[in-house]
Amino acid sequence: MILVNGVATGTVAATDRGLAYGDGVFRTLISIRGKPRWWTDQFRKLEQDCAALGIACPTEQALAHEVSRVTDPAIDEVVKIIVTRGSGARGYAPPQPASPSRIVMSAPIPDYPGEFRRGGIKVHLCRTRMASQPRLAGIKHLNRLENVLARAEWNDPSIPEGLMADDDGNIVGGIMTNLFLLEGGRIITPEIRRSGVAGVTRARIMAAAKDAGMICREEVVTQARLMEADEALLTNSVIGVWQIKECAGRNWKPGEQAGRMREWLDDERD
Amino acid sequence: MILVNGVATGTVAATDRGLAYGDGVFRTLISIRGKPRWWTDQFRKLEQDCAALGIACPTEQALAHEVSRVTDPAIDEVVKIIVTRGSGARGYAPPQPASPSRIVMSAPIPDYPGEFRRGGIKVHLCRTRMASQPRLAGIKHLNRLENVLARAEWNDPSIPEGLMADDDGNIVGGIMTNLFLLEGGRIITPEIRRSGVAGVTRARIMAAAKDAGMICREEVVTQARLMEADEALLTNSVIGVWQIKECAGRNWKPGEQAGRMREWLDDERD
Fold first, then answer.
1. pLDDT at A90 exceeding the cut of 90
2. Which residues 70-89 in chain A show a CB within 8 A of chain B?
3. In this predicted complex, what is the ipTM?
4. Closest to B233 in 3D by CA, of B151, B121, B157
């Protein structure tokens, strides 16, 4: 089911600024038998991202209610929430006042091969770069053409993800995931200052690493640094954690960090 | 009237990738009593932009027919055409095959004060920069959050446009226009290699300048170069030509280039 501003319609006004300009933000999360996972974190991030674009975020109550309407308490599903600045007259100037649109929908959990989780994944190193835009870095906004172009670079279903670099060639993360490296017992994740999305799963892993007494830092990750890492791992709210087993000719054996991170993520506390 | 895939519905599927990712392109043009101005140029540009994103462009015939359906032969209007990659399953990978969506709509011509055309305009120098992304430069795609953020920087209705610079501080153009400078009888326009939109009006002016025997070059335009120009002009398909009369403390007297460019644009040949 798809709710648009609370109505089970499945369609959005053709004049919505989300379509015209990508003027909005989104969240993708998992519903565990009708209960949205890490809901407080997910809503807070949505709220922050809306604020960064000057969009009035819908209330937590309204969204939670709509998530409960689109999800089935009998199964696990993926939930997507889009908030746009709403419809407006022609032109880039945000309408004053604006009436933001909210789109809430559910979908089956993607059926990835179990081997991705158990044995790790092969990843593609994308030619498409992430442009540097400090005003948008970290935000999960609707301007995602770079991700689309990067994902269109290969067509091999055994490769589920690609890594993207910034203008300087430093790795920012995956197309749909955040990256972590294990380096001599320390955890490193690319800093998200000029491009990329700072995901909720990334934030939870960083917090859990510190709680577990591990050093976890946001730093610049060159391609050489990636190649030298003891382990490299990709995370998001849907897949959890996948270890990278192969990238750009480098192979990694299964390590222990993926399992450790999954334990951290099993903490369902909000 | 709004046509979505030929149907007078006014709504688009909430799963359209134009909304999800800004995965599409658009055109804004003028209809003169039902006749779309510079139609061949507009369609060719749409076709090029679709090709650059790997989207199958609708046929010229289908779009021309839909433009004729949304426009009124008694009046002049603005027409907007959006082409997206269409709906798809969740995920960045473009669906194979895809069914592109076409959205065709008309709107009244904006009622700008006549003084903008006669006496020139004051422009805002935007703090929001255009990120460098060679894969998307020149294309009028739906990822326009930078333009939205730049346009939200001011609220003074006497200032109708802002200039945007790239990462290096070089001027790329206006938020909704292309920029031309007059320098000792030569015409300069910022090169569109790493960011910005290469508009149809810009291309027509460049071609007409050469036909008129004037030198017209695409070059790097620093802010200092803008300040030293004899005249600075902004163009797009809706406004035609506006001279800049004030920007960042510099004032220009009305010159002759705007009138010359308007004559060039009066050539309605396709």
1. no
2. 78, 80, 82, 84-85, 89
3. 0.97
4. B121
